[in-house]
Amino acid sequence: MILNHLSRWAAFVSVAIGCVTAWASPAYSQTYFELGGGWTYLTQTGPSSSGTYSHGINGRVSVGQEIAPNLRIRLDVVGIQFNRNVQYFPPCASPGCTRPYYTTQSNDVVGVVANGLVNVDPRGILYLIGGPGLYSASVPSAEWHVGVSAGAGITVPVGARLRAFTEARWHYLFGSTTGPSQLFPITVGLRY
Questions:
Q1: Other beta carbons less than 10 A from residue 82's beta carbon
Q2: What is the pLDDT of residue 3?
Q3: Residue 18: DSSP 8-state
Q4: Phi and psi of 175, rounded to 5°?
Q5: What distance in Å separates the CA atoms of residue 185 and residue 76, rounded to the nearest whole number?
Q6: Which residues contact 123 (CB under 8 A, 6 or more apart)?
Q7: 163 with 156: CB under 8 angstroms?
Q8: Distance CA 75, CA 73 (A)
Q9: Distance CA 116, CA 64 (A)
């Protein structure tokens, strides 16, 4: 099981590096790259017997292109990892020994999301973002879902071309899932 999670994260990193190197041409002066990570909040789905989910962590690698003064497109590779705590009652030989036990399972969601970004102000500090995506969820077995995301972000210049950003997103996975169908990552990072 641990090997399965490591191979999923290795695939996430490989796709992210491939996206960055594919668009890394100096001819595109309006191309930018982002690297960030942060926290993820999850919604509880399914019956309470299926377990509870802890808040998780996230990582994101993105490459984007400015197509108009206040409009950009961006491709994200997103990875979210969280734990699922499952309660169970083992059989016991005597009455009164049925106290609950918990086991923790590591779960993750990896997605590729195509986004449109619109600047709310002319300086490009506040922006709105949204778009469709394809997600692979391991909760606890592999599931594929089409989904959408929407959110907002703030960027602050820290150099000639370097910016720091904070972004809050909502990801919704369509179809029935054994894990959470709504993910709320808050990501901080750098854009170059």
A1: 22
A2: 47
A3: H
A4: 85, 170
A5: 13
A6: none
A7: yes
A8: 7
A9: 10
What is the model's pLDDT at position 15? 62
Which pLDDT score is estimated for 26?
46
Q: How far is CA 116 from CA 14, 18, 123, 150, in A?
A: 23, 21, 17, 10
pLDDT at 104: 78
The secondary structure of 138-165 as a DSSP string is ESSSEEEEEEEEEEEEEEEE-SSS-EEE
Q: Please, what is the end-to-end C-alpha distance for the chain in angstroms?
A: 36
Q: Which one-letter DSSP state was computed for residue 93?
A: S
* pLDDT for 176: 83
**Angstrom distance (rounded) from CA 131 to CA 150:** 7
Regions of the chain where pLDDT drops below 70: 1-29, 44-51, 88-89, 93-94, 96-100, 140
Q: What are phi and psi of 160, to 5 degrees?
A: -60, -45
Tell me, what's the pLDDT at 27?
A: 42
Q: How far apart are CA 129 and CA 72, in angstroms?
A: 9
**Could you tell me the pTM of the whole model?**
0.77
Tell me what pLDDT residue 177 has: 80
State the Cα–Cα distance between residues 12 and 100, nearest whole angstrom: 36
Query: What tokens does 117 get?
Result: 């970004």
Within 10 A of 178 (CB to CB), how many other CB atoms are there? 16
Q: 112, 88 in Cβ contact below 8 A?
A: no
